[in-house]
């Protein structure tokens, strides 16, 4: 493995774009060290190549076999087919990083040459702005150096944690899908502001700053969110009236169920793929 490794992305979806945007904008990678390919939708690949200056390989087999690190960023339903097509060109000594939801390291290892280092990762699309929350777990043949390289890769676009593989589906439900829950909350807050007469621009600006400030308070004070909530909500006050309404509609329960359901879906994806 060189000090300036080369990368081959298999898959050109939203996660690939988030990684490219975050890594390239922060100087972690340069376009000439990255090749990218996709099973179909070749216009999408060309668009990413134009936008980020990455390489569309003339010889895709060589791109896979010669890359130091292969990034698997495909849909779970396409994992078996992609590994059947490209796995034969991956050799021990290369590193494989998978960001495929629900797919275990053992599933991937069984379709590669014995001894190939596989790291499973679950970042989120906030890597686009350098604020991803990424969980990593090593496969059977991944050594400490492999895990460290994966951590260095993802730490350039946010934070990383290492978890056991059996926890990766929970991570998928929480932080992998988590940005969508936050965006859904923001949509509702903005709509509430507009429904009461605020302009969309004012409602959005106030909502985003409120979200940013609350996250910063949690991060910098280290206080428990329940305690910070109590500090805002005076008995009989406006905030308490709003919180009581959220409680009546089981707001927390709904969020917990959303995370749990996303985890279940991740498990289902893994099981259905493993049966192929």
TrEMBL record:
- Where does the record place it? Cytoplasm
Q: Which UniProt keywords apply?
A: Amino-acid biosynthesis, Cytoplasm, NADP, Oxidoreductase, Proline biosynthesis
Provide the transmembrane region boundaries: none
According to UniProt, the reaction catalysed is: L-proline + NADP(+) = (S)-1-pyrroline-5-carboxylate + NADPH + 2 H(+); L-proline + NAD(+) = (S)-1-pyrroline-5-carboxylate + NADH + 2 H(+)
Q: Does the keyword rRNA-binding apply?
A: no
Q: Name one Pfam family in it.
A: F420_oxidored
Where does the Pyrroline-5-carboxylate reductase catalytic N-terminal domain lie? 7-102
Q: Where is the Pyrroline-5-carboxylate reductase dimerisation domain?
A: 165-269
Which domain of life does the UniProt lineage start with? Answer: Bacteria
Q: Which family does it belong to?
A: Belongs to the pyrroline-5-carboxylate reductase family.
Q: Name the PANTHER family on file.
A: PYRROLINE-5-CARBOXYLATE REDUCTASE, PYRROLINE-5-CARBOXYLATE REDUCTASE 1
Q: What is this protein called?
A: Pyrroline-5-carboxylate reductase
Q: What is the lineage of its organism?
A: Bacteria, Bacillati, Bacillota, Bacilli, Bacillales
